[in-house]
Amino acid sequence: MTFLGMILAATLSFGQLFVQEGIGQELMSSPGVLALSGAKMPGALLPGFLGAGKKAICYRFSFNLSSHTEKRGVLAYDQFDNTVGEATIYSKAWNYSNIGFTAIGYKMGGKGLAMGFYPRYDLTYDYDRIERSDAYTVLREKHDKNRGKIYETFLSFGSRIKGPFYGGIRLSYLMGSLREEYYYMALPDTEQQYTHNYDMSGFTASLNLLYKREYLASSFLFSLPAKLKGDLERMYPLEMAAHFCLKPPAKLPTAIFFSYTYAAWGSIDTAYTGGEEYHDSHRFSLAFQHLLLDRTPLRVGASITKSYVRKDFWYPSFSFGIGYVMRNGMKLEFGTSFTPLNYYLYDGDTRYNVRESVINMSFGISGMI
Predict the structure, then answer these.
(1) What whole-number distance in Å separates Cα of residue 157 and Cα of residue 208?
(2) Backbone phi, psi, residue 48, to 5°
(3) pTM for the complete prediction?
(4) Is 108 helix (H, G, I), strand (E, B) or coil?
(5) Mean pLDDT of the chain, nearest integer
(6) Which distant-in-sequence residues (6+ apart) come within 8 Å of 209 by Cβ?
(7) Across-strand partners of 283?
(8) Which residues lie across from 299 on neighbouring strands?
(9) What is the pLDDT of residue 31?
(10) Are 44 and 61 in contact (CB under 8 A)?
(11) What is the phi-psi region of residue 79: left when phi exceeds 0, alpha when psi lies from -120 to 50, beta otherwise?
(12) Fewer Cβ neighbours under 10 Å: the N or C end of the chain?
């Protein structure tokens, strides 16, 4: 849910903004998705879990790959002005990677602590536009390219409160950079080109309450707003999330996960958004996990998110994961998610039908000593 890249240009693709809401924190490394994914170390981000379980040293490392494609089309007409289909006028794909969620923790039986880092906000953005004459001569050309991430380094504490109730706090330092490359050309003699680098940082904190029984776990997470200062000043909103896990007392080793996340983007002052007005965001996620042959967890899930960028716009995401538990207890995991986007983008009297897709992949190792 990041928007740093879009404030620097006036005509950005809506789909890029939607994509930025997903990549990084929500699809791959949010507390809710880590819990839904079956990660064995949720206490790093949901610190209430640090007070549950036996004494152990826990660890988790992961690596992420992302692939993004975009196509823009316009209606095609015949000589009688009848619609005969759609012509693709722009197509692009790009890939990038980053270190994923990395943490180590120590459970002391009723108490625990953890520390680590992960990419919380992804600022990657590409936008290309070329206008040609009927003779196919380039009249105008514009390219925007942003690269950067906001990483969260955190320290988490958790403890048993009483009976099945646990609590915890996560203290976070956010730090990152953004590199913007811009090029614009228009006939007959206009040409502009520049590169800007921005650094920013800030602090935030999260509180977590957990109820945990043998067949049921429920968690509530409250995250304070974060203000990043530096070459750019940005605000990220207050967030609240509820997570539930149900393991039916049956012979089949199956678990059901549900989560809801609310982000108060509508409360962010437009002074921090480049004048854009944003809307509160909601996300609902549902996932299932089944253990095959006692060593292979299989997971499927789906979510639907209300965008903070465009009012009343919802978009889906689908996920799949598989793992393998080694004899020494180490767990190898692979997860992937797919987010399709289809919307209209207007530029003057021209309406573009835009289709985008994002595929995220994560490779992880976790375990206890």
Answers:
(1) 10
(2) -60, -30
(3) 0.83
(4) coil
(5) 79
(6) 48, 165, 166, 167, 219, 220
(7) 261, 305
(8) 289, 321
(9) 33
(10) no
(11) alpha
(12) C
Q: Kindly tell me the burial class for residue 67, based on how many C-beta atoms sit within 10 Å of its own C-beta (0-12, 13-18, 19 or more).
A: middle
Give the separation between CA 228 and CA 182, rounded to whole angstroms: 23
Q: Which two tokens stand for residue 250?
A: 């049956």
pLDDT digits (tens, 9 = 90+) for 277-295: 889 999 998 888 888 877 8
**Rounded distance between C-alpha atoms, residue 362 and residue 10, angstroms:** 33
The partner residues of 320 in beta bridges, in order of sequence, read: 300, 336
| DSSP string covering 306-348 | E-SSSTT-EEEEEEEEEEEE-TTS-EEEEEEEEEEEEEEEEET
Identify the helix (H) or strand (E) that includes residue 5.
Answer: none
- What CA–CA distance (Å, rounded) separates 18 from 26? 12
What's the length of the chain? Answer: 369
Cβ atoms 263, 289 nearer than 8 A: no
Name the DSSP letter for residue 14. Answer: H
Instruction: Give the count of beta carbons closer than 10 Å to the beta carbon of residue 342.
Output: 11
Q: Which of these, 240, 241, 234, lies nearest to 268 by C-alpha position?
A: 234
Average pLDDT over residues 363-369: 84
Strands 102-107 and 56-77, by their bridges, are antiparallel
Report how far residue 208's alpha carbon sits from residue 156's, in angstroms, rounded to the nearest whole number. Answer: 10
The secondary structure of the chain in percent helix, strand, coil, rounded to multiples of 5, reads: 10, 65, 25
Q: Is 351 left (phi over 0), alpha (psi -120 to 50) or beta?
A: beta
Could you write out the three-class secondary structure of 262-307? EECHHHCCHHHCCCCCCCCEEEEEEEEEEEECCCEEEEEEEEEEEC
Q: Mind listing the pLDDT tens digit for each residue in 27-71?
A: 333 333 333 333 344 456 778 888 887 888 888 888 888 888 888
Residues 193 and 37: their CA atoms lie apart, in Å, by 43
CA pair distance 84, 75, nearest whole angstrom: 8
Question: How many CB atoms within 10 Å of residue 62?
Answer: 23
